[in-house]
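Backbone geometry:

***
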Amino acid sequence: MIRPLWIQIKENSLKKINECKTILELQEVMKELTGKKSELTEIMKSMGSLEPNERREIGMITTEIKKVVAEANQNKQDELVSLQSVLDCPMDLTLPGKEINGGALHPITQMCYDLNQAFLSLGFEVYSEDDISSEKYAFDNLNFPEDHPARQSMDTFWIEGTDDKNGCDRLCLRPHLTGGSVRYLLKHGAPARFVYPGRVYRNENTDARHERAFFQYEALIVDKNISFSEGIVMIQTILEKVFGRKINIRMREGFFPFTEPGYEIDMECLVCGGKGCKVCNHNGWIEVMPGGVIHPNVLKSANLDPEEWTGFYINIGLDRLVMMRYGVDDVRLFHSADLRFLSQFK
């Protein structure tokens, strides 16, 4: 009589386990099969009143049932986990798969990383600072006269509540990155080779080449006896590394308060191949960076002797370089957050 009962208990247990559809349901079934009020437990409680031979036989059968139920439970649990931990319904392996849409770096961010690698290979350090600057670092330290138009609210975004202050207490969104050069030199001294990428803010009208918030990438070398030709070689090397080929450039005389002499550095427009388009104002060239020899007054602001030290600036218009790399004719597209446009650069 013991053997048929064992077979019945075993078959019922395996059937209930096999019919489970969820992990929670399986847990409830296992509690029913092996818990304090289960049929198996009740049989074990009655073993004390049995003869030794019967007690030994029931003990062996009970151990075997527990082993079989435990194995069935583990197998069913593995099956349910593989299907239901990810899927809410049974998986149909005959259905076609779905393409996984992967993300990618924004083209401006990618260009920034490429420039970082190029400059690091030339022995430069990558430096960064906060987006909020002050009148002292944005203008005073850079030899801007007090009546310079860039100081006016028509060009610079001044922080509300600091209009009646001056120097370090008059705050603004940085209108350029050049203020970071003095901040770096005051902290680290000279000689120095560093770049500092970041977003800058200008109160101006937007068009195909201009935005109110855009990215710059500035580089500065400060050392003894820096020659002008070293600056030219740096410019040509960087552009060649970024575009993978030699880029035609030209330099025009330009005035910037923080350089002496200063230059406008143009590259041949890659959107039209130098033929003329709306990006290059139909002249075949586009300004990508101002540059020049660092002004003696800027060195004095950094507590450096201009008789001993000199340097060379370049300030790269990062957005415009990206336009040249991909042949895009409107800078506003990069800041539009339009995935239809940005997905092209994966």
The beta strands are 125-126, 132-134, 171-173, 192-201, 213-223, 249-254, 259-268, 285-294, 310-317.
